[in-house]
Amino acid sequence: MSKKQGLIALDIDGTLTDGHHLIPDKVVDYLCGLHDSGWQIALITGRMYSFAKRAIGNMNFPYFLGIQNGADILSMPDEKLVDRAYLQDGILDHLDLLYNELNTDYLIYSGYEKGDFCYWRPNRFPQQMYPYLKKLEKLSDAPWQERSDIRDSFPLIKCVGSYKTMHVVEEKLNTYTGIATSLISDPVSDGFYHLVLITHALGQKGGALKRIAKLCDIEGPIIAAGDDANDIPMFKEADIAIAMGGAPEHVAAYGSILAPPSTEMGIIPGIEQALTRC
């Protein structure tokens, strides 16, 4: 590999993926070429590993993968966990008080090392959400477990519902210290539902980007690309931010480059433009 150039950190859904939620071979080949020329590549996604691996199966060069918003960081393709930033169980009492006012519940993700399942309370969710929740469960490597008492750390909490409800949830969570929240449109539901992703303060994408840069001892420029609100912390840590076509206006405002949509493989011209500024 050539002399180390810098770090390129990329979201997956809406940044690299096509209309089938997969990364096209042409994009993979392009990223491989960047790696061969000295760039460290990192993918940082809200996906859990068992879902992420469906998109990255053809990426066979060395890179880092931040999953569940960056709570877990793996070296790839050897699938080795190299760093993590997890939530503690104390937040659950706070969430339960908040959810006493809502006709729904939240999901707790177990993490890469435990098999990527969710803890959930089936009787707390409205019946109309069940088809969507079953669709989510199929993305896991292991069946979901009905939640009882949890006294352990975990990477991610996912709150699911309408945009209006999730906006209220996120606002009320702003009073809780030591966490990071992101309100995004859910790609699995094609935007019908919205999510509030809750992670450790260092488990969001900006924190993951800093942790990966430290692991790699990066001294060169950092380029980041994404398309949703959970990518904003990553944009703030980068030297050059690429917002993908189709990103919400408040997200695109953080980009110094606006690339074509991911369905047009817009990440390639987006990165090419960024490279001219390095």
How would you characterize this protein structure?
There is one protein chain. By secondary structure, the protein is of the alpha/beta class. The protein has 2 domains: 6-84 and 204-275, HAD superfamily/HAD-like (Rossmann fold), CATH 3.40.50; 90-200, 2-Layer Sandwich (Hypothetical Protein, Haloacid Dehalogenase-like Hydrolase, Chain: A, domain 2), CATH 3.30.1240. The chain has 9 helices and 14 strands. The chain has helices spanning 25-36, 49-56, 90-99, 130-137, 163-173, 205-216, 232-237, 249-252, 267-275, and strands spanning 6-10, 39-44, 63-67, 72-76, 80-84, 106-109, 118-120, 145-146, 156-161, 179-185, 194-200, 222-226, 240-244, 257-259. The protein is globular and about 55 Å long. It starts with 5 loop residues before the first strand and ends with a helix. The mean pLDDT is 93.
Largest sheet: 8 strands, mixed
Kindly provide the name of the CATH class of the largest domain: Alpha Beta
Strand pairing plus helix content: what structural class?
alpha/beta
Specify Rg, calculated over alpha carbons.
Answer: 18 Å
Q: What gap, in angstroms, lies between the N and C termini?
A: 19 Å
Order of helices and strands, N to C? EHEHEEEHEEHEEHEEHEHEHEH
- Determine the strand fraction and express it as a percent band: 15-25%
SS field, number of helical segments: 9
CATH topology of the largest domain: Rossmann fold
**CATH architecture classification of the largest domain:** 3-Layer(aba) Sandwich
Going by CATH, the homologous superfamily of the largest domain would be HAD superfamily/HAD-like
Average pLDDT reading: 93
Instruction: List the uncertain runs.
Output: none
> How many beta strands in the DSSP annotation?
14
Number of domains: 2
The helix content, as a percent range, equals 25-40%
